[in-house]
């Protein structure tokens, strides 16, 4: 809110905002005792959001709190991290790392660490004095800043940091509004939403009394109502009356001559501009097509004069209360004035002027992304400079916001002439970005349309490459795009090299083990010749998976270690993500669970901070696989339930493959009918989709058949399956033991040979990978009925981080001893197996062992079926999370205490809230205190 003289109304009290100020005073009071909040202030333009934030800043200063203030701008929505840098990158920011913030876009590979360092710096600053972050016009925020802010809010939830955001509810992108809503909801009762309504007639009269320094008469009170309760319009009305000499103050009472509106309020912006000199009018109109804040030099260029020639005209515009100084720049007094001035320019001319302003800004040193929004709405078809600007902007923005980058790229494509020589290159770029943004249907339509047009070989190869790298298609389909492109005559060596690298990778992901090594060799040769690190990484990732599948675990580890060294060379985009995923996957598959879990957690954090949905899905499913390997079945289920689409979502990529494998394991081990149904559906979908998916589907269907007593069907499903293949995943080793069990029970020679082949592979490197040796010993022990080999397997598994595999070997060894007549040792082993299965909540396994013990006269029972809601519905891990959160632990502290990823903690909390019927941590704390009082012991779950 501004007074009629144009200065901020900081000396006047706020009117009509008593309730809102009470809430904000409560927020400040909580902040001063260490409790942060998230507050969203919503309202229409001119309603007083900025004034309210200024009042909050004053009140914070009065109690010794520090504050950071920033504002988002409409034309900077495509500038990565613009708002984040504006908020925390200024010299006045009481946090360290401002210089590092400016590397967020230049060094995407460091983004995770920069945001983490910023979080630590804010926490440190807040320890010195409570801190409030005030952001105005957040509806214009760029995606990268929103993701970073949400991450900071989550990480600093327990710190004395308040976040107060001003937003126009009807402006900005829907995704931004959804993100801001989520920020508020995530804080429970410490998330507040304030909606600023119009002022009442009495409140408007109070404002007039403050501004005029006198009581107002009936006529003036009636006139203030013409502003319809909008503070900005009210102040414009009062200033207009004063400028026209119509305000009279007698004996402390203000009145006005006549009831007509002042011209500045009644006139249109066109009429206001007509009262200016021609030079000042031109200055105002040119200013209206520039960004919100602009330099005098940029304005002078638009007007076509030297800056010195604008002094008189700018002064006139300032005196007319249209322009004002904003630091060392100029701007309109209010966005409403700026938009009104823009509307006085005919649309065609306005677009041309905006396009000219973009060129002027580029010449003055602006980056493409800083002018991209202006170019998008102002350029015409055939504007090659505009196309170049949008392409460069899309390239930069893609590092933090693939969807916005795809929009910019698509706009560049629409501005290109049909015969533009670069059109097909931009088509390929746009396809890549659409797939990165998971806008797969759009990408597929664009791909089909592109192939319908005449294309030269190079253009076709590049377009097919864009669809092969990242898309919703299966690896086999992607590999086919690579093969087709490699058959095209005359494609460039760089494009050929890329296709070779991706062909090797996709062949591996499709399970075509027999062709992967040759494809990888070809790719490595091409990569060496072209010095292409990305292709070398793809080839080596493919090779490492084949090494492991063929039993050469140490070779696989060496190869993946080389991949890690290559990946340090810089930001490798999606190839760097591929490398990180397979490093973690191979570590987990070879039994290095602690190492793999740390990699998965880092991958999840990177994905969340970058808002990369594809990467998040991939690492989430890998996290579920990690939980399975660790014997944490409830956690694995929680993870897959929280994935997009929940338990029923199975796609054609690696996410769908792992999801199907996890579903099968959970269904078999927990004997859950719902999971069995979903596992069967997933398996049948994948059965005919290439060797890797066929292998996973066959094992899932065989497991279901075996569990129901149908040995023949189980054998039939596995008879033609290579048990070890690519991609090499943690459950593959369990499948070898499972197949050995079926082969031994059925006597099927073909299946026995399959199992023997897998065992031979696992024995290729004696004493190299202990988990390989344990699985080989276990499988041979089952095939041969050899108790001694089973004993060796138990010893080997005891040194591995695979509790369920260990328990299975212990059970089999116990049964073998029982067959040999050693009843006492057998009971001891079966009891140990039961304890492990029950502890892991592997109920089907525990019941099976329990039945064996019952036959021996030993009664062991697992707990009753878990309730669906209430305290008894919580899993062991969820109960641990409850205890820690109720005692004040942050999500980060819970994650560190329980060795979980932050993502998994968030998922557990969502499930806990749903089961207990609550919405916030505060409610959880109160319920926990009550429950502890009701129970005899604080830790009520064993």
From TrEMBL:
SMART domains associated with the record: HTH_LUXR
Name of the protein described by the UniProt record: AAA family ATPase
Domain HTH luxR-type: 867-932
Gene Ontology MF annotations: adenylate cyclase activity; ATP binding; DNA binding
GO biological process: regulation of DNA-templated transcription
Top-level taxon of the source organism: Bacteria
Keyword ATP-binding appears in the UniProt entry: yes
PROSITE patterns: HTH_LUXR_1, HTH_LUXR_2
Pfam family, one: GerE
GO cellular component term, pick one: cytoplasm
Keyword terms of this UniProt record: ATP-binding, Nucleotide-binding
């Amino acid at each position: 809110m501004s007074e009629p003289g144009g200065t901020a109304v900081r000396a006047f009290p706020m009117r009509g905002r008593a309730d809102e100020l009470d809430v904000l005073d409560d927020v400040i009071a909580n902040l001063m005792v260490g409790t942060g909040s998230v507050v969203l202030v919503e309202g229409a333009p001119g309603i007083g959001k900025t004034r309210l934030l200024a009042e909050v800043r004053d009140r914070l200063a009065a109690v010794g709190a520090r504050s950071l203030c920033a504002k988002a701008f409409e034309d900077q929505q495509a500038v990565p991290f613009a708002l984040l840098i504006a908020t925390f990158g200024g010299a006045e920011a009481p946090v360290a790392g401002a210089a590092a913030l400016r590397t967020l876009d230049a060094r995407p590979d460091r983004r995770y660490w920069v945001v983490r360092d910023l979080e630590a710096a804010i926490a440190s600053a807040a320890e010195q004095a409570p801190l409030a972050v005030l952001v105005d016009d957040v509806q214009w925020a760029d995606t990268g800043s929103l993701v970073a802010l949400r991450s900071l809010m989550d990480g600093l939830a327990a710190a004395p940091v308040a976040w107060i955001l001003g937003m126009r509810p009807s402006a900005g992108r829907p995704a931004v509004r959804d993100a801001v809503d989520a920020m508020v909801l995530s804080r429970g009762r410490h998330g507040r939403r304030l909606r600023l309504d119009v002022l009442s007639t009495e409140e408007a009269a109070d404002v007039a009394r403050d501004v005029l320094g006198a009581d107002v008469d009936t006529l003036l009170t009636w006139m203030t109502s013409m502003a319809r309760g909008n503070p900005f319009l009210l102040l414009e009305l009062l200033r207009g009356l004063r400028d026209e000499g119509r305000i009279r103050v007698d004996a402390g009472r203000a009145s006005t001559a006549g009831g007509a509106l002042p011209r500045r309020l009644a006139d249109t912006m066109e009429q206001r501009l007509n009262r200016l000199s021609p030079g000042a009018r031109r200055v105002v109109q040119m200013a209206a097509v520039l960004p919100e804040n602009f330099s005098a030099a940029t304005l002078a260029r638009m007007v076509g004069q030297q800056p010195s020639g604008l002094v008189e005209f700018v002064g006139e515009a300032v005196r007319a209360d249209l322009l004002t100084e904003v630091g060392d720049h100029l701007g309109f007094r209010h966005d409403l004035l700026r938009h009104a001035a823009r509307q006085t320019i005919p649309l065609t001319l306005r677009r041309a002027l905006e396009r000219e302003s973009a060129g002027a800004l580029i010449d003055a040193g602006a980056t493409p992304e800083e002018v991209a929004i202006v170019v998008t709405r102002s350029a015409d078809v055939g504007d090659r400079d505009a196309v170049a600007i949008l392409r460069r902007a899309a390239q930069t923005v893609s590092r933090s916001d693939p969807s916005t980058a795809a929009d910019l790229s698509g706009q560049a494509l629409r501005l290109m002439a049909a015969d533009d020589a670069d059109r097909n290159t931009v088509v390929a770029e746009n396809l890549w970005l659409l797939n990165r943004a998971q806008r797969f249907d759009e990408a597929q339509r664009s791909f089909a349309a592109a192939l319908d047009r005449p294309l030269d070989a190079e253009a076709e190869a590049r377009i097919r490459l864009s669809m092969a790298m990242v898309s919703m298609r299966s690896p086999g389909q992607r590999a086919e795009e690579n093969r087709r492109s490699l058959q095209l005559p005359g494609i460039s060596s760089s494009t050929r090299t890329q296709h070779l690298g991706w062909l090797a990778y996709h062949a591996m992901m499709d399970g075509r083990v027999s062709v992967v090594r040759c494809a990888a060799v070809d790719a490595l040769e091409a990569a060496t010749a072209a010095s292409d690190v990305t292709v070398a990484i793809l080839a080596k990732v493919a090779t490492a998976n084949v090494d492991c599948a063929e039993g050469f675990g140490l070779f696989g580890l060496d190869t993946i270690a080389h991949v890690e060294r290559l990946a340090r060379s810089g930001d490798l985009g999606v190839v760097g993500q591929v490398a990180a995923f397979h490093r973690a996957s191979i570590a987990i598959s070879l039994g290095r669970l602690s190492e793999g879990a740390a990699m998965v957690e880092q991958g999840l954090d990177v994905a969340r901070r970058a808002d990369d949905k594809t990467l998040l899905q991939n690492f989430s499913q890998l996290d579920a696989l990690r939980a399975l390997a660790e014997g944490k079945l409830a956690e694995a289920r929680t993870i897959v339930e929280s994935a997009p689409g929940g338990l029923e979502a199975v796609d054609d990529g690696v996410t769908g493959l792992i999801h199907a494998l996890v579903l099968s394991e959970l269904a078999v081990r927990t004997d859950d009918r719902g999971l069995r149904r979903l596992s069967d559906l997933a398996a049948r979908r994948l059965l005919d989709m290439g060797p890797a998916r066929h292998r996973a589907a066959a094992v899932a269907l065989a497991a279901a058949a075996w569990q129901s007593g149908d040995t023949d069907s189980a054998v039939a499903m596995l008879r033609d399956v290579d048990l070890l293949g690519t991609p090499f995943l943690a459950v593959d080793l369990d499948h070898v033991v499972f197949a050995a069990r079926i082969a031994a029970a059925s006597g099927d020679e073909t299946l026995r040979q399959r199992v023997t082949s897998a065992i031979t592979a696992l024995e290729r490197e004696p004493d190299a990978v202990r988990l390989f040796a344990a699985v080989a010993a276990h499988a041979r022990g089952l095939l041969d009925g050899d108790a001694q080999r089973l004993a060796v397997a138990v010893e080997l598994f005891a040194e591995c981080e695979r509790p369920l595999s260990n328990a299975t070997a212990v059970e089999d060894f116990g049964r073998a001893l029982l067959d040999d007549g050693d009843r006492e040792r057998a009971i001891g082993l079966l009891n140990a197996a039961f304890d492990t299965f029950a502890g892991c909540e592997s109920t089907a396994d525990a019941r099976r062992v329990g039945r064996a013990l019952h036959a021996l006269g030993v009664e062991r029972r697992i707990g009753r079926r878990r309730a669906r809601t209430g305290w008894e519905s919580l899993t062991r891990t969820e109960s641990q999370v409850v205890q820690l959160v109720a005692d004040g632990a942050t999500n980060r502290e819970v994650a560190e205490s329980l060795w979980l990823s932050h993502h998994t903690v968030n998922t557990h909390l969502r499930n806990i809230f749903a089961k207990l019927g609550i919405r916030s941590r505060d409610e959880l704390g109160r319920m926990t205190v009550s429950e502890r009082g009701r129970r005899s012991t604080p830790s009520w779950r064993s």
